[in-house]
Amino acid sequence: MADKVATRAAYGEFLVEEGKTNKDLVVLDADLSGSTKTSGFAKAYPDRFFDFGIAEQNMMGAAAGLALSGKTVCASTFAMFASGRAFEIIRNSIGYTGANVKVCATHAGITVGEDGASHQTFEDLALMRTIPGMTVVNPSDGSSAKLLLKQVVDMQGPAYVRLGRAAVPQFYDMTADIKLGKGNLLRPGKDVTVIATGILVSSAMEAASELAEEGIDVRVIDMHTIKPLDEEIIIKAASETGKIVTAEEHSIIGGLGGAVAEVVTRECPVKMAMVGQHDTFGESGKPDELREKYGMTAADIVNAVRGLY
């Protein structure tokens, strides 16, 4: 793995590059451009950047208006405020109208760290995937973030892209074959499948290597697109390995774990375990220490796999 990069940083770099050729791309922010990394786009293309201040609902409403006028809009703020404070506007003004708005929300999950419980969101994937027609994406590293963002921007319709604050290992490179709506098989295995999303993909690979030393052959899938969900790869994994563990930096209620369980219970019931936030708020602390305390590490994935035997 290469040096660590935050997916929010990759997002900022993507916007500047995309803005060179995509003249219809407009970027909005809510007084957080330094943190969301939209500031680079603002500097490069000041006539296509709008800062709405601490007024997330207004920003999402304006995003819908710009999109319905023919623009491609990336609207950014922290995930807590995008998915929570502005949910009704996203639902009615963006989702209901099918507006071409990409809600690119940063600082998601426990790795917001020192910002504490008020800023750590474990509900955003669950909320966004309930909106009809909403594409929901959770990249695992900087390279996959750029590759998926390009596809999201090129598609028509609303999307939610989840991005993180903390730097994470670069798992992919820019030649990776990553397709929106299709899970990536990263490691074959016959005994158990770990389906991971976001920053826990690299942890899943680490856990698979450790379990291999115990004679457990682990299949690893990167489920970067939560909606539309790749049901085919899930059903195949369930039928061939008979056990599934999901891993996410999100509540196990309604996120990746819930989405996979919906498919498995309907199509191919197997034993399952879920690694993620277990119905609790977080607290202020260092990201790695918080991941350990709240059970979102490679060691927790290992223990979840063992628990299925």
UniProtKB/TrEMBL annotation:
Cofactor entry: thiamine diphosphate
Cell inner membrane keyword on record: no
Keywords: Thiamine pyrophosphate
Residue ranges occupied by any Transketolase-like pyrimidine-binding domain in the UniProt entry: 5-170
InterPro entries attached to this UniProt entry: PDH/Transketolase (IPR051157), THDP-binding (IPR029061), Transketo_C/PFOR_II (IPR009014), Transketolase-like_Pyr-bd (IPR005475), Transketolase_C (IPR033248)
Similarity comment: Belongs to the transketolase family.
Protein name: Transketolase subunit B
Species annotation: Aminicella lysinilytica
